[in-house]
Design a protein that fits this description.
Layout: H1 10-13, E1 27-29, E2 43-45, H2 49-63, H3 74-79, H4 85-95, E3 110-119, E4 126-128, E5 139-144, E6 148-158, E7 162-173, E8 176-188, E9 191-198, E10 202-203, E11 212-221, E12 227-238
Parallel strand pairs: 5-12
Antiparallel strand pairs: 1-2, 3-4, 3-6, 6-9, 6-10, 7-8, 7-11, 11-12
GO molecular function: Rho GDP-dissociation inhibitor activity
Protein name: Rho GDP-dissociation inhibitor
GO biological process, one term: Rho protein signal transduction
Length: 242
Amino acid sequence: MLSIGVGLNSKNIMGGAADDNTPSRGYESGDEGASGGGEGGTLRRHRSESSIVATEDEDDDHDKKIELGPQCTLKEQLEKDKDDESLRRWKEQLLGSVDINSVGETLEPEVKILSLAIKTAGRPDIVLPIPEGGTPNGLWFTLKEGSKYRLMFTFQVLNNIVSGLKYTNTVWKTGLKVDSTKEMIGTFSPQTEPYTHEMPEETTPSGIFARGTYVAKSKFVDDDNICYLEINYTFDIRKDWQ
């Protein structure tokens, strides 16, 4: 699969689901036919009293709402018990070296994608301008068929910790989805210095059927499903870079 391109391979196209014909559990043989010698053997499902009670308890738990404790900003957390040396060291181990100048007064983190680039050995990096509206004008970039490359991006985290930042990319050709990628980037504390992340190396497909124009959507989201950047774009795979 490709992180920003497309993967036309057998595991994407030919992937199949597992067989679901396994008999379900929770049934017992009847008194007759249990040993295979009787006629009219029946299967009977038994619900014990304990299973009924458990089901009722699950229903009650489903109706209950989880009450969270009071939430506070990261700045408030850092200032709590600041005179307690052991707690201060514990917070440093947990959060790392947090830049207090990057910590805001809000609960929500702020993630800014600063740059995107495609790196290929022996060639200058293809620097991708980040569009303000999320949709580049015209073709965003061109890749050569059968070439190896990496996607690299830098980003900044402000205000609060961002948990489970992910990069997702979906690619279509002639209206058919040909690739879908999800890359876990990680959890990051706020700091003024930008973070840098490189995706694993990928290889563009080759051949007459791989060449052409593709439509794609890239997103940066976290565990709370907050989207920090969404880009809808088109790109080409050609015989050469131009």
